[in-house]
Amino acid sequence: MAVVGDSSNRGFPPPPPQGWLNANFDGAFDSSSRSGGIGIIFRDHESVVVGGYYGRVANVTSPDLVEAYAGRLACEMARELQLFSIVLESDCLNLVKATQSDMEDSAFGMIVEDIKQDLLSLNSFFLVMFSGSPTW
After folding, report:
1. CA 27, CA 81: separation in Å to the nearest integer?
2. CB 3.0-4.6 Å disulfide test: which of 25, 58, 89, 94 passes with 130?
3. DSSP labels, 57-99
């Protein structure tokens, strides 16, 4: 696994190399309802949307946990769709760091372990920290 540099100040993730896909995932957390929303978007090297997902998660306790659920689902989708050359993009530094740690003791450790297992099934991938805000 590789972490590529922070892509802040770009306003939008750069496209992946030809033959690869970007999977940008994100989560939102509502502490009052202990629920969240997740979104995943897959784009090709020309930034054309080739797939995606959005949904809700219930009974969550933190923003990082929602991000972890989104990351796990992005990895599961990539594996199930046999998308083996993929750039995974997250704006959650805690999640990116946790996936690279040998010892996982965070509040979302089991989900991170699921992500790591899914990543092992991909031939080529990068996990990228993306902190820019898209300008739509």
Report:
1. 22
2. 89
3. EES---HHHHHHHHHHHHHHHHHHTT--EEEEEES-HHHHHHH
Distance (Å, whole) CA 115 – CA 99? 7
State the Cα–Cα distance between residues 123 and 86, nearest whole angstrom: 9
Neighbour-count burial for 53-62, b at 16+ CB within 10 Å, e otherwise: eeeebeebeb
Which residues 6+ apart lie within 8 Å of 21 measured at CB? 42, 43, 44, 50, 78, 83, 85, 86, 87
pTM of this structure: 0.82
Residue-wise pLDDT tens digits, 79-120: 888 887 888 889 888 888 888 887 766 677 889 888 888 888
Query: For residue 43, what are the β-bridge partners?
Result: 22, 49
Task: Over range 30-55, report the average pLDDT.
Answer: 95
Per-residue confidence band for 8, with pLDDT thresholds at 50, 70 and 90? very low
CB 121 within 8 Å of CB 79:
yes
